[in-house]
Amino acid sequence: MILWKTVSTRVTLEMIYDEVKRVNKRLSLIEDAIEEVIVKGLPEVNISEEKKEEIKRSIQEMKNGDCVTLEEIKSA
Length: 76
Prior knowledge:
Layout: H1 13-41, H2 49-64, H3 70-75
């Protein structure tokens, strides 16, 4: 016979908020790492300074939440 103990965990709004903050922080660190890889790799690629700046602007737009739909990309 197996006896199950019931553990009552009370989840509060503050606990949820704290977890969301931690996830946002981790995502920010991942974004920063990806940006670092892209930007550090740019000098190895033979592209113009204008294109490099365009890529950096695009990264900043993504960080700001600016986006387009997949359909907009396909039709570009």
